[in-house]
Amino acid sequence: MDQNEHQADAHRRPKKLIFAPGDIAPTSTEPTPEPKAQAAIDQTAEALRTSTSTPNSITETEVLSNAARAHQFGANPPLTVSQIHGTNPLHQFNTWFHDPRLPASSAPETCTLSTASLPSGRVSARVVYLKELDERGWVVYSNWGSREGKGGQVFGLCESDTLGAMPEPDSEPAVTSEIGSGNKWGALTFSWATVERQVRIEGLLEPLSREESEMYWRTRERGSRIGGWASWQSKVLWSAEPAQLEANQRRKSVAKLQGAFDGDSLVPADIDLTDVEDGRALLESKVKEMEEKFAGVEDIPLPPFWGGVRLVPESVEFWQGRRSRLHDRFRYVRVEGEGEGAKWRLQRLSP
């Protein structure tokens, strides 16, 4: 590739697989466009859903001539300061969490835990389940012992590059200067689309005592306890270099089901027999090893690398959707004290 070709390639627009404007149908609360206008919108939206959706001059003109059909919020009345708890965000969260419009089947306890490594500042996030809320904060449980996982980010790494055991509250694991200490700042995000609400919590993560973790551990079914012992969370079980990926790709007829290839092919009946080994067998062998280890043991003990952490909040934001993106946002910021004795500043934020 000569220099001119390289410069042209550098300035080429990246192909868009999804191009949002016009791709969302109007809601029932929005005025219905005239038939001709609706036909133009539908045609534009269909063009934007194709495999070559990178806009050209024609589609750009069509898109810009129609308002983007993004979702418009309107399930709630306006959120005002008189409708939220005046002194404690944990009580306000409890009220929203138990909204009767959030049935158990919608899993309102689902949330995203975000952490960041030091000194790089690299952020990672994963979906977890809220298990407890007390006067001190939000509690989640997980495996924290792997270098590859979130434990190293939060608590730092010891000489062997693994935690080895959950640290006790107010303790620090021994870390090397090369690896660096952990970053206990974390965030939880709850998103409840059915009621058009979101809650964002930022604060410091602290480990629960072993006794507290054991109390929850005993509520888990046996299979989940075995899994807790067998899985070194985020440890690589299998990998393939770029040159190996095509060779390890499943049959094209299977990939067709994933939208990767053109053509009409049927999924083979022997897919499970012809697939390549991808590390699952290693995990299952570890599970089998743990099942043998704990055979006949009724009360499987808590692993030393597994337990709960509490996010002690520094700020808690309650977000409620409003039309035209003019959302209601209230944020509590802790100014002094802890637990039930904490004092909070309440702020309305611009959407």
Automatic annotation (TrEMBL):
Q: For the region Disordered, what residue ranges are annotated?
A: 1-56
Give cofactor(s), names only: FMN
Q: Which residues cross the membrane?
A: none
Which keywords does this chain's UniProt record carry?
Coiled coil, Flavoprotein, FMN, Oxidoreductase
This protein's pathway: Cofactor metabolism; pyridoxal 5'-phosphate salvage; pyridoxal 5'-phosphate from pyridoxamine 5'-phosphate: step 1/1; Cofactor metabolism; pyridoxal 5'-phosphate salvage; pyridoxal 5'-phosphate from pyridoxine 5'-phosphate: step 1/1
The protein's matches in InterPro entries, at most eight in alphabetical order, are given as: Pyridox_Oxase (IPR000659), Pyridox_Oxase_CS (IPR019740), Pyridoxamine_oxidase_dimer_C (IPR019576), Split_barrel_FMN-bd (IPR012349)
Q: Name one matching Pfam family.
A: PNP_phzG_C
Give the highest taxon in the source lineage. Answer: Eukaryota
EC code(s) of this entry: 1.4.3.5
Q: Which GO terms describe its biological process?
A: pyridoxine biosynthetic process
SUPFAM superfamilies of this UniProt entry? FMN-binding split barrel
Species of provenance: Penicillium rubens (strain ATCC 28089 / DSM 1075 / NRRL 1951 / Wisconsin 54-1255) (Penicillium chrysogenum)
Q: What is this protein called?
A: pyridoxal 5'-phosphate synthase
Start and end residues of each Pyridoxine 5'-phosphate oxidase dimerisation C-terminal domain: 306-351
- Give me the stretches of Basic and acidic residues compositional bias: 1-11
Q: What is the lineage of its organism?
A: Eukaryota, Fungi, Dikarya, Ascomycota, Pezizomycotina
Coiled-coil boundaries: 273-300
Gene3D superfamilies linked: Electron Transport, Fmn-binding Protein, Chain A (2.30.110.10)
What top-level class of enzyme does the UniProt entry assign? oxidoreductase
UniProt GO molecular function:
FMN binding; pyridoxamine phosphate oxidase activity
